[in-house]
Amino acid sequence: MVDSTALAGGRQGHERLAELVPVVLRGLAAGTAERAAPGPAGGPAAVAASVAALEPLVPERGVGAEKALSELATLLAAGSVDPADPWCAAHLHCPPLAVGVAADIAAGALNPSMDSWDQAPVASELERAFLTAIARLCYPAEPAPDAVVTTGGTESNLLGLLLAREKHQNVRPVCGRNAHHSVARAAWLLGLPAPVVVGCEGERMSAEALGEVLRTTGPAVVVATAGTTDTGDIDPLREIARVCREHGARLHVDASYGGLALCSTRLRPLLDGLAEADSVALDLHKFGWQPIASGLFAVRDAADLAALNVQAEYLNADDDTEAGLPDLLGRSIRTSRRPDAFRMAVTMRALGLHGMGELIERCCATAREVADAIRRHPGLELRGEPTLSTVLFRPVSGDVAEVRRALLESGTAIIGRATLPPGEVWLKLTLLHPHATAADYQGLLDTVAATARAGAAIAS
Ligand SMILES: *Cc1c(COP(=O)(O)O)cnc(C)c1O
Protein backbone atom coordinates (compact mmCIF):
# COMPACT_ATOMS: atom_id res chain seq x y z
CA MET A 1 0.00 0.00 0.00
CA VAL A 2 1.24 3.47 -0.83
CA ASP A 3 1.49 5.79 2.16
CA SER A 4 -1.28 8.36 1.61
CA THR A 5 1.07 11.09 2.85
CA ALA A 6 3.82 10.27 0.30
CA LEU A 7 5.03 13.23 -1.75
CA ALA A 8 4.92 13.54 -5.53
CA GLY A 9 8.26 15.33 -5.78
CA GLY A 10 11.76 14.76 -4.44
CA ARG A 11 14.10 11.89 -5.28
CA GLN A 12 11.46 9.20 -4.74
CA GLY A 13 8.31 11.02 -5.78
CA HIS A 14 8.30 9.49 -9.24
CA GLU A 15 8.23 6.01 -7.67
CA ARG A 16 5.12 6.84 -5.67
CA LEU A 17 3.51 8.25 -8.78
CA ALA A 18 4.45 5.12 -10.69
CA GLU A 19 2.40 3.20 -8.10
CA LEU A 20 -0.57 5.55 -7.99
CA VAL A 21 -0.95 6.61 -11.63
CA PRO A 22 -1.83 3.04 -12.73
CA VAL A 23 -4.56 3.01 -10.06
CA VAL A 24 -6.01 6.17 -11.62
CA LEU A 25 -5.77 4.68 -15.11
CA ARG A 26 -7.54 1.47 -14.02
CA GLY A 27 -10.27 3.60 -12.46
CA LEU A 28 -10.63 5.56 -15.71
CA ALA A 29 -10.90 2.32 -17.68
CA ALA A 30 -13.44 0.77 -15.28
CA GLY A 31 -15.63 3.89 -15.15
CA THR A 32 -15.51 4.37 -18.90
CA ALA A 33 -16.53 0.73 -19.41
CA GLU A 34 -19.41 1.18 -16.94
CA ARG A 35 -20.79 4.08 -18.98
CA ALA A 36 -22.23 2.80 -22.25
CA ALA A 37 -22.59 6.19 -23.96
CA PRO A 38 -20.76 9.55 -24.11
CA GLY A 39 -22.68 10.67 -21.02
CA PRO A 40 -24.15 9.08 -17.89
CA ALA A 41 -27.74 7.84 -18.11
CA GLY A 42 -30.44 9.10 -15.78
CA GLY A 43 -29.70 12.82 -15.60
CA PRO A 44 -28.97 14.84 -12.45
CA ALA A 45 -30.82 12.49 -10.06
CA ALA A 46 -28.84 9.39 -11.05
CA VAL A 47 -25.54 11.26 -10.92
CA ALA A 48 -26.35 12.76 -7.50
CA ALA A 49 -27.21 9.27 -6.21
CA SER A 50 -23.83 7.92 -7.35
CA VAL A 51 -22.07 10.58 -5.28
CA ALA A 52 -24.43 10.21 -2.30
CA ALA A 53 -23.45 6.52 -2.17
CA LEU A 54 -19.99 7.65 -0.98
CA GLU A 55 -21.32 9.42 2.11
CA PRO A 56 -19.54 10.46 4.18
CA LEU A 57 -17.38 11.74 1.31
CA VAL A 58 -14.92 13.23 3.82
CA PRO A 59 -14.72 10.56 6.53
CA GLU A 60 -13.31 10.88 10.02
CA ARG A 61 -10.67 8.24 9.14
CA GLY A 62 -9.30 8.13 5.62
CA VAL A 63 -9.75 5.17 3.26
CA GLY A 64 -6.19 5.40 1.88
CA ALA A 65 -4.77 6.73 -1.37
CA GLU A 66 -5.41 3.67 -3.54
CA LYS A 67 -9.02 3.18 -2.52
CA ALA A 68 -9.84 6.90 -2.75
CA LEU A 69 -8.22 7.19 -6.17
CA SER A 70 -9.78 4.03 -7.47
CA GLU A 71 -13.30 4.84 -6.21
CA LEU A 72 -13.31 8.44 -7.32
CA ALA A 73 -11.55 7.96 -10.66
CA THR A 74 -14.10 5.24 -11.49
CA LEU A 75 -16.95 7.49 -10.33
CA LEU A 76 -15.61 10.40 -12.37
CA ALA A 77 -15.26 8.40 -15.57
CA ALA A 78 -18.65 6.72 -15.16
CA GLY A 79 -20.47 9.98 -14.45
CA SER A 80 -18.71 12.31 -16.88
CA VAL A 81 -19.56 13.35 -20.39
CA ASP A 82 -16.53 12.41 -22.45
CA PRO A 83 -15.54 14.92 -25.12
CA ALA A 84 -13.36 12.19 -26.66
CA ASP A 85 -16.64 10.62 -27.85
CA PRO A 86 -17.72 12.31 -31.10
CA TRP A 87 -21.34 12.45 -29.88
CA CYS A 88 -20.27 14.73 -27.02
CA ALA A 89 -20.28 17.94 -29.07
CA ALA A 90 -22.30 20.58 -27.23
CA HIS A 91 -19.74 23.17 -26.28
CA LEU A 92 -16.25 24.46 -26.93
CA HIS A 93 -15.26 21.62 -24.64
CA CYS A 94 -12.35 19.77 -26.19
CA PRO A 95 -11.02 16.26 -25.72
CA PRO A 96 -7.51 16.91 -24.35
CA LEU A 97 -4.52 15.35 -26.07
CA ALA A 98 -2.79 12.64 -24.06
CA VAL A 99 0.53 14.47 -24.48
CA GLY A 100 -0.83 17.56 -22.68
CA VAL A 101 -2.32 15.52 -19.85
CA ALA A 102 0.93 13.59 -19.41
CA ALA A 103 2.86 16.87 -19.29
CA ASP A 104 0.56 18.02 -16.49
CA ILE A 105 1.87 15.22 -14.28
CA ALA A 106 5.32 16.82 -14.29
CA ALA A 107 3.85 20.26 -13.66
CA GLY A 108 1.70 18.97 -10.80
CA ALA A 109 4.51 17.01 -9.17
CA LEU A 110 6.97 19.90 -9.08
CA ASN A 111 4.29 22.54 -8.51
CA PRO A 112 6.14 25.63 -9.75
CA SER A 113 4.21 28.75 -8.78
CA MET A 114 4.48 31.44 -11.40
CA ASP A 115 4.35 34.48 -9.12
CA SER A 116 8.08 34.65 -8.37
CA TRP A 117 11.31 33.42 -9.91
CA ASP A 118 12.37 31.69 -6.67
CA GLN A 119 9.33 29.38 -7.00
CA ALA A 120 9.59 28.74 -10.73
CA PRO A 121 13.07 29.31 -12.18
CA VAL A 122 12.91 27.28 -15.36
CA ALA A 123 9.11 27.13 -15.60
CA SER A 124 9.02 30.93 -15.78
CA GLU A 125 11.73 30.99 -18.47
CA LEU A 126 9.87 28.33 -20.48
CA GLU A 127 6.66 30.31 -20.10
CA ARG A 128 8.41 33.44 -21.34
CA ALA A 129 9.81 31.66 -24.40
CA PHE A 130 6.46 30.03 -25.16
CA LEU A 131 4.59 33.32 -24.82
CA THR A 132 7.09 35.06 -27.09
CA ALA A 133 6.28 32.47 -29.76
CA ILE A 134 2.53 32.96 -29.27
CA ALA A 135 2.88 36.74 -29.37
CA ARG A 136 4.79 36.45 -32.68
CA LEU A 137 2.10 34.16 -34.06
CA CYS A 138 -0.51 36.85 -33.35
CA TYR A 139 1.67 39.83 -34.29
CA PRO A 140 4.26 38.72 -36.84
CA ALA A 141 5.18 42.26 -37.93
CA GLU A 142 5.33 44.02 -34.54
CA PRO A 143 8.65 44.83 -32.86
CA ALA A 144 7.59 44.13 -29.26
CA PRO A 145 4.46 42.02 -28.83
CA ASP A 146 3.93 40.01 -25.65
CA ALA A 147 1.45 37.58 -24.12
CA VAL A 148 0.41 36.27 -20.71
CA VAL A 149 -1.29 33.12 -19.49
CA THR A 150 -4.90 33.35 -18.30
CA THR A 151 -7.59 30.95 -17.15
CA GLY A 152 -9.43 31.43 -20.44
CA GLY A 153 -11.39 33.84 -22.57
CA THR A 154 -13.27 35.26 -19.59
CA GLU A 155 -10.08 36.44 -17.86
CA SER A 156 -8.51 37.49 -21.19
CA ASN A 157 -11.52 39.66 -22.03
CA LEU A 158 -11.32 41.19 -18.55
CA LEU A 159 -7.65 42.04 -19.21
CA GLY A 160 -8.54 43.48 -22.61
CA LEU A 161 -10.96 45.94 -21.00
CA LEU A 162 -8.67 46.54 -18.03
CA LEU A 163 -5.73 47.64 -20.21
CA ALA A 164 -8.09 49.91 -22.16
CA ARG A 165 -9.34 51.48 -18.94
CA GLU A 166 -5.78 52.09 -17.76
CA LYS A 167 -4.98 53.81 -21.07
CA HIS A 168 -8.06 55.98 -21.42
CA GLN A 169 -10.13 57.04 -18.45
CA ASN A 170 -13.90 56.86 -18.98
CA VAL A 171 -13.45 54.33 -21.73
CA ARG A 172 -16.73 52.94 -23.04
CA PRO A 173 -16.88 49.25 -23.97
CA VAL A 174 -18.51 48.55 -27.34
CA CYS A 175 -19.21 45.05 -28.63
CA GLY A 176 -21.36 43.18 -31.12
CA ARG A 177 -24.70 41.62 -30.32
CA ASN A 178 -22.85 38.35 -30.93
CA ALA A 179 -20.20 38.98 -28.21
CA HIS A 180 -19.55 36.58 -25.34
CA HIS A 181 -21.35 37.28 -22.04
CA SER A 182 -17.98 37.71 -20.30
CA VAL A 183 -17.51 41.08 -22.05
CA ALA A 184 -20.49 42.65 -20.23
CA ARG A 185 -19.44 40.98 -17.01
CA ALA A 186 -15.88 42.32 -17.34
CA ALA A 187 -17.28 45.84 -17.80
CA TRP A 188 -19.34 45.35 -14.65
CA LEU A 189 -16.38 44.01 -12.65
CA LEU A 190 -14.19 46.92 -13.75
CA GLY A 191 -16.79 49.56 -12.88
CA LEU A 192 -17.14 50.54 -16.55
CA PRO A 193 -20.46 51.42 -18.15
CA ALA A 194 -22.35 48.51 -19.72
CA PRO A 195 -21.16 47.86 -23.29
CA VAL A 196 -22.85 49.63 -26.16
CA VAL A 197 -24.18 46.79 -28.30
CA VAL A 198 -23.64 47.03 -32.06
CA GLY A 199 -25.93 45.26 -34.50
CA CYS A 200 -24.89 42.39 -36.72
CA GLU A 201 -25.24 41.44 -40.36
CA GLY A 202 -26.09 37.79 -40.04
CA GLU A 203 -24.06 36.84 -36.99
CA ARG A 204 -21.10 39.16 -37.72
CA MET A 205 -20.69 42.60 -36.21
CA SER A 206 -21.55 45.31 -38.73
CA ALA A 207 -18.55 47.60 -39.27
CA GLU A 208 -20.89 50.26 -40.60
CA ALA A 209 -23.07 50.16 -37.48
CA LEU A 210 -19.88 50.27 -35.40
CA GLY A 211 -18.84 53.47 -37.19
CA GLU A 212 -22.22 55.03 -36.32
CA VAL A 213 -21.79 54.12 -32.65
CA LEU A 214 -18.20 55.38 -32.43
CA ARG A 215 -19.20 58.73 -33.93
CA THR A 216 -21.15 59.54 -30.76
CA THR A 217 -19.27 57.70 -27.98
CA GLY A 218 -16.17 59.20 -26.37
CA PRO A 219 -13.06 57.07 -25.80
CA ALA A 220 -14.04 53.49 -26.61
CA VAL A 221 -12.72 49.96 -26.48
CA VAL A 222 -14.26 47.78 -29.15
CA VAL A 223 -14.48 44.03 -28.58
CA ALA A 224 -14.77 42.04 -31.81
CA THR A 225 -15.16 38.27 -31.92
CA ALA A 226 -13.23 35.77 -34.03
CA GLY A 227 -15.34 32.65 -33.67
CA THR A 228 -18.56 33.33 -31.79
CA THR A 229 -19.70 30.87 -29.17
CA ASP A 230 -23.13 30.38 -30.75
CA THR A 231 -22.27 30.09 -34.43
CA GLY A 232 -18.48 30.23 -34.89
CA ASP A 233 -18.79 33.31 -37.09
CA ILE A 234 -15.86 35.71 -37.40
CA ASP A 235 -16.41 39.47 -37.35
CA PRO A 236 -14.94 41.44 -40.30
CA LEU A 237 -11.75 42.19 -38.39
CA ARG A 238 -9.94 44.28 -40.98
CA GLU A 239 -12.90 46.61 -41.54
CA ILE A 240 -13.51 46.85 -37.80
CA ALA A 241 -9.85 47.69 -37.22
CA ARG A 242 -10.08 50.45 -39.84
CA VAL A 243 -13.19 51.93 -38.21
CA CYS A 244 -11.49 51.78 -34.79
CA ARG A 245 -8.43 53.57 -36.16
CA GLU A 246 -10.60 56.28 -37.73
CA HIS A 247 -12.21 56.99 -34.37
CA GLY A 248 -9.17 56.45 -32.14
CA ALA A 249 -10.83 53.49 -30.43
CA ARG A 250 -8.90 50.63 -28.89
CA LEU A 251 -9.58 47.15 -30.31
CA HIS A 252 -9.63 43.86 -28.40
CA VAL A 253 -10.38 40.71 -30.40
CA ASP A 254 -11.96 37.81 -28.55
CA ALA A 255 -10.44 34.97 -30.57
CA SER A 256 -10.97 32.43 -27.77
CA TYR A 257 -12.43 29.99 -30.27
CA GLY A 258 -10.94 30.92 -33.65
CA GLY A 259 -7.51 32.29 -32.73
CA LEU A 260 -5.52 29.10 -33.10
CA ALA A 261 -6.58 28.94 -36.76
CA LEU A 262 -3.46 31.12 -37.14
CA CYS A 263 -1.55 27.82 -37.05
CA SER A 264 -3.06 26.79 -40.40
CA THR A 265 -1.88 28.55 -43.56
CA ARG A 266 -5.17 27.50 -45.17
CA LEU A 267 -7.40 28.95 -42.41
CA ARG A 268 -5.28 31.98 -41.47
CA PRO A 269 -6.96 34.28 -44.03
CA LEU A 270 -10.18 33.97 -41.97
CA LEU A 271 -8.40 36.02 -39.30
CA ASP A 272 -7.20 38.74 -41.67
CA GLY A 273 -6.89 41.96 -39.65
CA LEU A 274 -6.31 40.25 -36.29
CA ALA A 275 -2.81 41.74 -36.04
CA GLU A 276 -4.38 45.22 -36.10
CA ALA A 277 -5.91 44.58 -32.67
CA ASP A 278 -4.37 46.04 -29.53
CA SER A 279 -5.03 42.77 -27.70
CA VAL A 280 -6.24 39.26 -28.46
CA ALA A 281 -7.81 36.47 -26.37
CA LEU A 282 -6.94 32.87 -27.36
CA ASP A 283 -7.97 29.61 -25.67
CA LEU A 284 -5.90 26.47 -26.05
CA HIS A 285 -8.55 24.55 -24.14
CA LYS A 286 -10.73 24.81 -27.29
CA PHE A 287 -8.82 24.46 -30.56
CA GLY A 288 -5.50 23.54 -28.92
CA TRP A 289 -6.77 20.38 -27.14
CA GLN A 290 -5.43 21.28 -23.72
CA PRO A 291 -6.97 20.53 -20.35
CA ILE A 292 -8.67 23.57 -18.80
CA ALA A 293 -7.39 26.17 -17.89
CA SER A 294 -5.29 27.11 -20.92
CA GLY A 295 -6.05 30.71 -21.85
CA LEU A 296 -3.69 33.23 -23.44
CA PHE A 297 -3.86 36.99 -23.80
CA ALA A 298 -1.61 38.68 -26.36
CA VAL A 299 -0.85 42.38 -26.73
CA ARG A 300 0.56 44.23 -29.72
CA ASP A 301 2.78 46.36 -27.47
CA ALA A 302 4.43 44.73 -24.44
CA ALA A 303 4.46 48.13 -22.69
CA ASP A 304 0.67 47.91 -22.26
CA LEU A 305 1.14 45.08 -19.76
CA ALA A 306 2.92 47.51 -17.39
CA ALA A 307 -0.59 48.30 -16.14
CA LEU A 308 -0.49 44.94 -14.33
CA ASN A 309 2.70 45.73 -12.39
CA VAL A 310 2.40 45.44 -8.64
CA GLN A 311 4.88 45.42 -5.81
CA ALA A 312 4.96 42.90 -2.97
CA GLU A 313 8.12 43.07 -0.92
CA TYR A 314 8.32 39.28 -0.35
CA LEU A 315 7.92 38.43 -4.06
CA ASN A 316 9.58 41.18 -6.09
CA ALA A 317 11.55 43.55 -3.83
CA ASP A 318 13.26 46.34 -5.81
CA ASP A 319 16.73 45.21 -4.76
CA ASP A 320 15.97 41.64 -5.96
CA THR A 321 14.80 42.98 -9.32
CA GLU A 322 17.84 45.27 -9.59
CA ALA A 323 20.06 42.29 -8.78
CA GLY A 324 18.63 40.52 -11.84
CA LEU A 325 15.81 38.35 -10.53
CA PRO A 326 12.98 38.44 -13.07
CA ASP A 327 9.84 40.14 -11.74
CA LEU A 328 6.92 37.83 -12.55
CA LEU A 329 4.18 39.29 -10.39
CA GLY A 330 3.00 41.69 -13.08
CA ARG A 331 2.41 38.82 -15.56
CA SER A 332 -1.05 38.08 -14.14
CA ILE A 333 -3.86 39.42 -11.99
CA ARG A 334 -3.47 36.23 -9.92
CA THR A 335 -0.70 35.54 -7.38
CA SER A 336 -0.11 31.76 -7.01
CA ARG A 337 -0.43 30.40 -10.49
CA ARG A 338 -0.02 26.94 -12.04
CA PRO A 339 2.56 26.44 -14.81
CA ASP A 340 -0.18 25.99 -17.41
CA ALA A 341 2.22 27.10 -20.14
CA PHE A 342 4.27 23.95 -19.53
CA ARG A 343 1.75 21.52 -21.04
CA MET A 344 0.93 24.02 -23.80
CA ALA A 345 4.65 24.26 -24.67
CA VAL A 346 5.05 20.47 -24.62
CA THR A 347 2.03 20.05 -26.91
CA MET A 348 3.02 22.77 -29.38
CA ARG A 349 6.56 21.40 -29.53
CA ALA A 350 5.24 17.88 -30.11
CA LEU A 351 2.85 18.88 -32.91
CA GLY A 352 4.43 22.03 -34.25
CA LEU A 353 2.30 24.81 -35.71
CA HIS A 354 1.73 22.60 -38.73
CA GLY A 355 0.41 19.65 -36.72
CA MET A 356 -1.86 21.89 -34.67
CA GLY A 357 -3.15 23.64 -37.80
CA GLU A 358 -3.92 20.31 -39.41
CA LEU A 359 -6.10 19.20 -36.49
CA ILE A 360 -8.06 22.46 -36.72
CA GLU A 361 -8.46 22.09 -40.50
CA ARG A 362 -9.82 18.57 -39.97
CA CYS A 363 -12.49 19.76 -37.53
CA CYS A 364 -13.55 22.53 -39.91
CA ALA A 365 -13.66 20.11 -42.87
CA THR A 366 -15.73 17.62 -40.86
CA ALA A 367 -18.15 20.43 -39.94
CA ARG A 368 -18.68 21.22 -43.64
CA GLU A 369 -19.34 17.55 -44.42
CA VAL A 370 -21.76 17.22 -41.49
CA ALA A 371 -23.53 20.36 -42.75
CA ASP A 372 -23.88 18.69 -46.17
CA ALA A 373 -25.32 15.56 -44.53
CA ILE A 374 -27.86 17.71 -42.66
CA ARG A 375 -28.83 19.51 -45.86
CA ARG A 376 -29.55 16.14 -47.50
CA HIS A 377 -31.40 14.76 -44.45
CA PRO A 378 -35.19 14.75 -44.92
CA GLY A 379 -35.85 15.12 -41.18
CA LEU A 380 -33.46 18.03 -40.55
CA GLU A 381 -32.95 21.67 -41.48
CA LEU A 382 -29.50 23.33 -41.67
CA ARG A 383 -29.18 26.94 -40.47
CA GLY A 384 -26.20 27.90 -42.61
CA GLU A 385 -22.75 27.02 -43.86
CA PRO A 386 -20.25 26.65 -40.98
CA THR A 387 -17.31 29.10 -40.78
CA LEU A 388 -15.26 27.12 -38.25
CA SER A 389 -16.50 23.88 -36.69
CA THR A 390 -19.94 24.86 -35.37
CA VAL A 391 -22.99 23.41 -37.13
CA LEU A 392 -26.50 24.68 -36.35
CA PHE A 393 -29.54 22.68 -37.34
CA ARG A 394 -32.94 21.53 -36.13
CA PRO A 395 -35.46 18.80 -36.75
CA VAL A 396 -38.20 19.80 -39.21
CA SER A 397 -40.81 18.98 -36.56
CA GLY A 398 -40.90 18.53 -32.79
CA ASP A 399 -39.64 20.55 -29.82
CA VAL A 400 -35.95 21.36 -30.36
CA ALA A 401 -35.12 21.97 -26.68
CA GLU A 402 -36.90 18.73 -25.67
CA VAL A 403 -34.86 16.69 -28.14
CA ARG A 404 -31.63 18.04 -26.63
CA ARG A 405 -32.74 17.25 -23.09
CA ALA A 406 -33.96 13.73 -23.99
CA LEU A 407 -30.58 12.84 -25.52
CA LEU A 408 -28.73 14.34 -22.53
CA GLU A 409 -30.93 12.52 -20.00
CA SER A 410 -30.25 9.14 -21.61
CA GLY A 411 -26.55 9.93 -22.04
CA THR A 412 -26.90 9.14 -25.76
CA ALA A 413 -25.52 12.43 -27.04
CA ILE A 414 -24.53 15.81 -25.66
CA ILE A 415 -25.49 18.54 -28.09
CA GLY A 416 -25.77 22.26 -27.58
CA ARG A 417 -28.40 24.89 -28.24
CA ALA A 418 -28.38 28.45 -29.45
CA THR A 419 -31.20 30.96 -29.58
CA LEU A 420 -30.77 33.13 -32.66
CA PRO A 421 -32.80 35.86 -34.32
CA PRO A 422 -35.72 35.95 -34.57
CA GLY A 423 -35.73 34.13 -31.20
CA GLU A 424 -35.56 30.60 -32.59
CA VAL A 425 -33.91 27.71 -30.77
CA TRP A 426 -31.41 25.68 -32.83
CA LEU A 427 -29.38 22.59 -32.03
CA LYS A 428 -25.63 23.10 -32.06
CA LEU A 429 -22.79 20.73 -32.76
CA THR A 430 -19.40 22.19 -31.84
CA LEU A 431 -16.99 19.79 -33.48
CA LEU A 432 -13.67 19.63 -31.64
CA HIS A 433 -12.92 15.93 -32.03
CA PRO A 434 -9.82 15.91 -34.23
CA HIS A 435 -10.13 12.26 -35.25
CA ALA A 436 -13.89 12.05 -35.89
CA THR A 437 -15.15 12.00 -39.47
CA ALA A 438 -18.54 12.97 -40.89
CA ALA A 439 -19.48 9.26 -40.90
CA ASP A 440 -19.28 9.29 -37.08
CA TYR A 441 -22.12 11.83 -37.00
CA GLN A 442 -24.56 10.23 -39.46
CA GLY A 443 -26.06 8.04 -36.73
CA LEU A 444 -26.40 11.07 -34.46
CA LEU A 445 -28.30 12.99 -37.13
CA ASP A 446 -30.68 10.04 -37.59
CA THR A 447 -31.11 9.78 -33.81
CA VAL A 448 -31.96 13.49 -33.50
CA ALA A 449 -34.55 13.22 -36.29
CA ALA A 450 -36.05 10.04 -34.79
CA THR A 451 -36.17 11.52 -31.26
CA ALA A 452 -37.95 14.62 -32.61
CA ARG A 453 -40.47 12.45 -34.50
CA ALA A 454 -41.13 10.32 -31.39
CA GLY A 455 -41.60 13.46 -29.27
CA ALA A 456 -43.95 14.99 -31.85
CA ALA A 457 -45.98 11.73 -31.96
CA ILE A 458 -46.38 11.69 -28.15
CA ALA A 459 -47.37 15.37 -28.08
CA SER A 460 -50.12 14.94 -30.68
C1 LIG B 1 -15.08 30.15 -24.66
C2 LIG B 1 -15.24 31.57 -24.97
C3 LIG B 1 -15.09 32.54 -23.98
C4 LIG B 1 -14.93 32.19 -22.53
O1 LIG B 1 -13.73 31.59 -22.33
P1 LIG B 1 -13.43 30.71 -21.04
O2 LIG B 1 -12.19 30.04 -21.49
O3 LIG B 1 -14.58 29.80 -20.85
O4 LIG B 1 -13.23 31.65 -19.92
C5 LIG B 1 -15.15 33.86 -24.36
N1 LIG B 1 -15.38 34.20 -25.63
C6 LIG B 1 -15.55 33.29 -26.60
C7 LIG B 1 -15.82 33.74 -28.01
C8 LIG B 1 -15.49 31.94 -26.30
O5 LIG B 1 -15.66 31.03 -27.26
Characterise the protein shown here.
- This protein has 460 residues and is α/β, with parallel strands linked by helices.
- The chain folds into 3 domains: 13-79, no CATH class; 106-351, Type I PLP-dependent aspartate aminotransferase-like (Major domain) (Aspartate Aminotransferase, domain 2); 352-459, Alpha-Beta Complex (Aspartate Aminotransferase, domain 1), CATH 3.90.1150.
- It is built from 14 helices and 13 strands.
- It has helices at 13-34, 43-52, 65-79, 98-110, 121-138, 153-167, 181-189, 207-216, 237-247, 313-316, 318-322, 340-376, 400-410, 439-459, and strands at residues 146-150, 172-176, 196-198, 200-201, 204-205, 220-225, 250-255, 279-283, 295-299, 380-382, 390-395, 416-420, 424-430.
- It has a 7-stranded mixed beta sheet, sandwiched between helices. A 4-stranded antiparallel beta sheet has the order 10-11-13-12.
- Strand 2 (172-176), helix 7 and strand 3 (196-198) form a beta-alpha-beta unit.
- It is globular, with a radius of gyration of 24 Å.
- 44% of the residues are buried.
- Pyridoxal-5'-phosphate (PLP) is lined by residues 92, 152-154, 180, 182, 225, 227-229, 254, 256-257, 283, 295.
